[in-house]
Design a protein that fits this description.
58% of the residues lie in helices and 4% in strands. With 432 residues, it is mainly α. The strands form three sheets. The protein has a two-stranded antiparallel sheet. It is globular.
Length: 432
């Protein structure tokens, strides 16, 4: 059983190794050529999904430039819509984390959360507070300060550019919550803080925060410079990952040149870790346990339901070997599903069944959000029905991870480490 196989050692640590052998019901052992075909298609889908992430980030960048050039509620709304659109392909790429170190080591630059937004810009002191024992840069407010002096450190922030954001500020002091770059920094700069708790409403930053002639919030020129710099940096970071998955790229070549079984293990590590420890645990169950909107993935925009939905879509893409691009075209080919079906029809049937059930639970959550009850409301302390919708997603993801274990066994892979979560494995420790 999953609870016996997955043993959490910390909130972010890896769980114990799963020892599995060839299933007794295995019928056909795939050859290296078949496995290589699956790995190649996996790389093709990665390349296409990161390309779509880059394309939509470039559209977001254009919308941000339009906002800065002509601040209005219309241009701000257009930039927000472009941000939401950019999340659709990117969230599907997260199935490539965990197993692929080249992705996991890079991911924090573009999608790190939660963030202490007071590092970046003004915050509401009543809800956010004025200091943190854990983070000296908690309210550094780089937008307002050309020079930041904290704990004996002095940061020259007179020019807001990619070097300052990515090279100096991001995770400054070694603190992961000091997120200065990526999607969520942009999200905060577009929406502002969500001050509604588990009540209705998202962030409500006015467009005049970017209007130097009618400035609200102060420092509108520096805020615009920050938004444009982090948008350009996001594009640069995505270009790097597109190149890694292109023909001859480091991520693709490492898999294609390696042992085929290791490549399949990489794929399944990504699926199992995202399904269980990361998504079911850290992104969903933790916030539900604490009823805390600060543990909501897209907490400023109230877009969390779609981010989770497309994480699941990405896992389906990897297993079935098919991805629908933003232009409607498809990338498809040899798949894990085919390999599993040949080795154990039962394991494949269970996997497809559980993936379908998880996707359905995600759809219920998304439909509820689209109907007017945002994700942060669903996890609220006095919302039993909403809580159950979210718990159903957690339960479906957990069951799906058991099916992933079945695939691992059917394919005769020896050792795979899935990421765990105290939120699932030791919830009492989370509540302390």
């Amino acid at each position: 059983m999953l609870k016996q196989n997955l043993r959490s050692i910390s909130r972010t640590g890896l769980v114990a190794v799963l020892g599995v052998g060839l299933s007794a019901c295995a019928a056909v052992a795939a050859g290296d050529d078949e496995k290589k075909a699956v790995i190649k298609n996996y790389a093709d889908i990665a390349h296409a999904t990161y390309e779509d992430s880059l394309t939509t980030a470039q559209e977001l960048d254009k919308a941000i430039d339009a906002l800065v050039s002509n601040p209005s509620e219309d241009t701000l709304s257009a930039a927000k819509k472009a941000w939401v659109a950019s999340r659709v392909p990117y969230q599907q790429t997260e199935a490539y984390r965990f197993g692929n170190a080249i992705v996991d080591d890079w991911e924090g630059k573009v999608n790190a959360w939660p963030l202490d937004e007071g590092l970046i810009d003004y915050v509401d002191a009543g809800s956010y507070g004025s200091e943190s024992d854990e983070n000296a840069f908690y309210t550094a407010n780089v937008v307002a300060n050309a020079s930041v002096k904290v704990g004996g450190q002095e940061v020259d922030a007179s020019e807001i550019n990619a070097d300052l954001l990515g090279g100096t500020l991001h995770e400054i002091d070694g603190i992961e919550a000091n997120v200065a770059t990526g999607y969520h920094a942009i999200e905060f700069l577009l929406w502002g803080q969500d001050l509604n708790g588990t009540g209705p409403g998202a962030g409500n930053r006015p467009a005049t925060d970017y209007d130097v002639n009618n400035c609200t919030g102060g420092n509108c020129d520096r805020r615009a410079a920050y938004l444009q710099a982090t948008s350009k940096l996001l594009i640069s970071d995505l270009e790097e990952m597109v190149a890694n998955w292109a023909d001859g790229g480091a991520a693709r070549q490492g898999l294609m040149d390696g042992n085929p079984d290791d490549g399949l293990a990489t794929m399944l590590t990504g699926l199992g870790s995202l399904s269980y420890g990361e998504l079911a645990g850290e992104r969903i169950k933790l916030g539900l346990l604490l009823h805390d909107p600060e543990e909501e993935h897209d907490c400023f925009s109230d877009n969390t339901h779609w981010s989770h939905f497309y994480n699941q879509k990405g896992m389906v893409n990897v297993y079935t070997g098919s991805y629908t691009r933003v232009d409607g075209s498809k990338v498809s080919g040899a798949s894990l599903a085919e390999l599993t079906a040949a080795a154990s029809p039962e394991a494949n049937d269970a996997m497809l069944k559980d993936m379908k059930a998880t996707s359905a639970a995600m759809q219920v959550m998304a439909d509820r959000a689209q109907g007017g009850e945002a994700y942060d409301q669903m996890i609220g302390p006095d919302n039993a029905e909403g809580n159950q919708v979210i718990q159903d997603v957690v339960d479906a993801l957990t069951q799906q991870t058991k099916a992933i274990e079945g695939v691992v066994s059917a394919l005769g892979l020896d050792q795979i480490a899935f990421e765990g979560s105290d939120s699932l494995d030791d919830p009492e420790s989370v509540m302390q």
